[in-house]
Design a protein that fits this description.
This protein is of the alpha/beta class and 274 residues long. The chain is built from 13 helices and 10 strands. Bound molecules: D-glutamic acid. The site of D-glutamic acid has 17 residues, from helix 3.
Length: 274
């Protein structure tokens, strides 16, 4: 067991976690951050449990090698398929003093505040939908809420290939919005339960009924992390406070910079890792 001090680490299968880290940095700008996108092996959403677990564990270990005491799995698919095993089986052997947190639990805790009809829509990857993480977790906290899920397998490739602002994206955004609402017209809240989807937010807004409130996870995760650090001063003290951000990708760093620039201005420090 070590007591390393270092940055808050973020991991996603690709660019999606940038939407989460952006919100966290706005609320907590004082800390140092390191982000890893496994862009070369994305998407995770269609991969099996074992593969997502293996890739996620490798990436968490890589982030720990940058001395981070706290890693956030800013990916719903990896949170659904790998988080619990890493927390329970792997972390005690790697370093029991470090922590790995996910994005599903804080989202489920917050979602109940937003619905009046009690029908909540969940847009997610096929992997997250099949894991039933959202319906099962909500059932525990708010059994009065009905969850209606819609898998959106084409949305992550649109983001990863920088096609999310193009007119061609409209077809697939409309398709899944219509499919969700036709399952249950009483839905009044939709959660974007894949960290890539906020990049499609303006189009999603266009194709859902105006009465539907769309929830992105960034602010929810940021507030939950702030709360966690207030409750865990022993972890907060181990986070270095220089306000820096560095980016790691398993793909080409120039490609990564293009999308990361949507969120972060200036010359970005992007490094390719294997
Ligand atoms: N951004 C990830 C999520 O939140 C998954 C994207 C992928 O399919 O790799 O679920």
């Amino acid at each position: 067991m070590s007591n390393v001090c270092g940055p808050i680490a973020f991991f996603d299968s690709g660019y999606g976690g940038l939407t989460i880290m952006d919100s966290v940095r706005k609320l907590l700008p004082q800390y140092d951050y390191v982000y890893l996108g496994d862009n070369a092996r994305n998407p995770y959403g269609t991969r099996s449990f074992d593969v997502v677990y293996q890739y996620t564990l490798e990436c968490v270990n890589k982030l720990f090698s940058f001395d981070s005491p706290l890693a956030i799995i800013a990916c719903n698919t990896a949170s659904a398929k790998a988080l619990r095993t890493i927390q329970q089986n792997d972390l005690p052997h790697i370093d029991a003093s470090r922590r790995v947190l996910g994005v599903i639990r804080p989202s489920v805790e917050a979602i109940g505040e937003y619905t009046k009809t009690g029908y909540v829509g969940v847009f997610a990857t096929q992997g997250t939908v099949d894991s039933l993480s959202y319906p099962m977790e909500l059932q525990k906290l708010r059994p009065d809420i009905t969850v209606v899920q819609q898998a959106c397998p084409m949305w992550v490739p649109l983001v990863e290939n920088s096609e999310y602002q193009d007119p061609g994206a409209d077809y697939f955004v409309k398709k899944y919005c219509d499919a969700l609402m036709s399952q249950c017209p009483k839905i009044d809240v939709v959660i974007l339960a894949c960290t890539h989807y906020p990049l499609l937010l303006s189009k999603i807004r266009q194709y859902l009924p105006k009465s539907v409130n769309i929830i992105c996870q960034g602010d929810i995760v940021a507030k939950s992390l702030e709360n966690y650090l207030q409750r865990h001063p022993e972890m907060e003290e181990r986070l270095t406070k220089g306000g820096t951000v560095r980016f790691l990708t398993t793909e080409n760093p120039h490609k990564f910079k293009f999308t990361a620039k949507v969120f972060f201005k200036g010359d970005l420090d992007v490094q390719q890792i294997i």
